[in-house]
Amino acid sequence: xxxxxxxxxxxxxxxxxxxxxxxxxxxxxxxxxxxxxxxxxxxxxxxxxxxxxxxxxxxxxxxxxxxxxxxxxxxxxxxxxxxxxxxxxxxxxxxxxxxxxxxxxxxxxxxxxxxxxxxxxxxxxxxxxxxxxxxxxxxxxxxxxxxxxxxxxxxxxx
Length: 158
Known about the structure:
Elements: H1 5-16, E1 20-22, H2 23-31, H3 35-58, E2 65-67, H4 76-85, E3 89-92, H5 95-102, H6 116-131, E4 136-139, H7 145-155
């Protein structure tokens, strides 16, 4: 979260002339309620189940640029599915930078805790081995959306 996934995916989609899809937006459409409401209704386990089903569905499509939530890689089957159908790029940044970017965003259910910065650090620590499964990683620290997009395009000489 807070690494620029959505903005970068949209710009990549534009530069590559490929359709853009945001996995969280698709979940909201499918469920007819916000991510917060989904978490309130069924918890994270329920959310991850919906997410996994949508990963399977989108993997059947071609030439998409997809923005996935930070938790999608916690499921190894999701990782395998995504890698079979495309290239997985993990955007990362230090916890402090992520916190500064998202501290005023109340739409993040995992950060509805007394100390969000500590929660971000905890999530990054837990998720680190999963994020390392991505095909490529790009550190977004101090970079603009344009700079991040350029780094990704350089990876593929586009």
